[in-house]
């Protein structure tokens, strides 16, 4: 029997609706304060996204000199480079433009807390939703990656979009319909312009939607039940069509979203791979002179240096596949290292001591967080819990099997770990309270 407070969706927060907005405002101001204290807007690093943005502003198009001469690229999904180009085009390449970028990222991070609040409120209770709101709004890693880190990576964008995808799926779960399936596909399609790894979650989402339709008593009957399963991925792919056409014109080949899989897969699986992307010394260098390149044969290295991105990906994917088939035990070892790094974070690749401490702290509680999240399955084996667990497993396996680790890769799945962990703690607390209440009652009767 579930505790009443977790199933009572009409429960009202004692702080009222205005309390939610006060929490969000405080979280936003905290992020801006952190930006000013640590000066992240003074030395921000946009990496390859910034280079593409500057090339766009210079009239060179969506191009990049990654590992070779300047050429058209699809190495990065297009939204963030164009977004950076828009901000820099208006405000220049100045600390002010970086401050505006960080402020926008902070607003997106705070919005993620609100979306998580709505997901939990619609699913379980207002009380648990308020606890989720406060936890995610003031969660140190989210504050760090939105306002403190000098590396303007995509977590604030992708975390929000991941939550929106799940929110759409939960709306579909409550009232399955073709319109809600199309809305989910639309959010998926836009999300892929920000985070290409969401594409591999589409099959998981389709399986979950199929199970929902199978169990549903909504009016969709017979073959009509298949329409949402067709419409969702179709809408997502149609939204990708303009960028696919652009890539075909740039490379003369079908590239649905981005290149880079072969390169990243090879960087994660080669004779000198360590499981950590940053330990590959200076891999972002012209002419392909990083350490793993020395393991290639001279003819292949020359071919790789002269190839465009699509051809290079094909060559390196074949090289990585041959390495795995020849050294399966090493691939297994690297996979275990990557899975460990996914939860604990890479060890020492930060410029200052306090950042090393922050990342170390980020890893120390993560195993406990995972344990609490998975324990939620023991208390509530419903579709929502399984959807959250599937999403966490998806990202864990994606980076564990395919790509070398980086400290922010877990961020997309982090809100769902937090929600499940909070759910577990609330259930344990309420069961303890019920046990204490029964014990006191029995003592009174005696």
Salient structural properties:
mainly alpha, 446 residues, 68% helix, disordered N terminus, single chain
Structure in words:
The protein has 446 residues and is mainly α. Among the domains are: 1-153, no CATH class; 260-326, no CATH class. The chain is built from 19 helices and two strands. It has helices at residues 4-7, 16-38, 47-57, 79-91, 95-123, 126-137, 140-148, 155-174, 178-192, 202-215, 227-251, 261-268, 298-306, 309-326, 328-344, 353-364, 366-379, 383-401, 414-445, and strands spanning 63-64, 71-72. A two-stranded antiparallel sheet has the order 1-2. Helix 2 packs across helix 7, helix 5 (95-123) runs antiparallel to helix 6 and helix 13 (298-306) packs antiparallel against helix 14 (309-326). The radius of gyration is 24 Å and the shape is globular.
């Amino acid at each position: 029997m579930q505790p009443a407070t977790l199933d009572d969706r009409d429960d009202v927060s004692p702080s009222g609706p205005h309390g939610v907005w006060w929490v969000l405002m405080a979280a936003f101001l905290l992020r801006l304060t952190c930006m000013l204290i640590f000066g992240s807007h003074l030395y921000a690093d946009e990496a390859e996204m910034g280079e593409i943005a500057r090339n766009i502003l210079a009239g060179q198009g969506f191009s990049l000199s990654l590992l070779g001469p300047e050429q058209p690229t699809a190495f990065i999904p297009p939204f963030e480079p164009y977004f950076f180009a828009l901000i820099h085009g208006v405000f220049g390449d100045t600390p002010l433009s970086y401050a505006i970028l960080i402020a926008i990222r902070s607003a997106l991070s705070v919005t993620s807390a609100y979306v998580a609040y709505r997901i939990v409120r619609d699913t379980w209770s207002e009380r648990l939703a308020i606890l989720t709101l406060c936890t995610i709004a003031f969660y140190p890693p989210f504050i760090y990656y939105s306002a403190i880190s000098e590396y303007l990576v995509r977590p604030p964008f992708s975390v929000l979009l991941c939550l929106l995808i799940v929110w759409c799926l939960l709306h579909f779960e409550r009232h399955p319909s073709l319109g809600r399936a199309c809305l989910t596909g639309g959010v998926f399609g836009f999300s892929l312009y920000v985070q290409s790894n969401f594409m591999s979650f589409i099959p998981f989402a389709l399986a979950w939607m199929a199970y929902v339709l199978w169990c549903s008593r909504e009016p969709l009957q017979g073959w009509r039940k298949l329409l949402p399963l067709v419409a969702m991925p179709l809408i997502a792919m149609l939204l990708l069509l303009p960028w696919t056409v652009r890539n075909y014109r740039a490379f003369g080949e079908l590239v649905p979203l981005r290149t880079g899989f072969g390169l990243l897969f090879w960087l994660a699986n080669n004779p000198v791979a360590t499981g950590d992307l940053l330990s590959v010394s200076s891999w972002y260098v012209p002419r392909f002179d990083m350490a793993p390149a020395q393991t290639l044969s001279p003819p292949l290295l020359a071919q790789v240096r002269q190839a465009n991105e699509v051809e290079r990906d094909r060559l390196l994917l074949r090289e990585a596949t041959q390495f795995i088939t020849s050294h399966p035990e090493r691939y297994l070892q690297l996979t275990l290292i990557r899975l460990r790094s996914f939860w604990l974070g890479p060890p020492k690749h930060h410029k200052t001591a306090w950042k090393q401490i922050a990342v170390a702290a980020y890893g120390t509680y993560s195993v406990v967080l995972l344990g609490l999240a998975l324990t939620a399955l023991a208390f509530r084996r419903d579709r929502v819990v399984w959807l959250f667990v599937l999403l966490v497993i998806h990202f864990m396996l994606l980076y564990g099997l395919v790509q070398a680790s980086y400290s922010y890769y877990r961020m997309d799945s982090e809100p769902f770990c937090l929600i499940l962990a909070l759910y577990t703690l609330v259930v344990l607390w309420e069961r303890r309270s019920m046990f204490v209440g029964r014990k006191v009652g029995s003592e009174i009767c005696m």
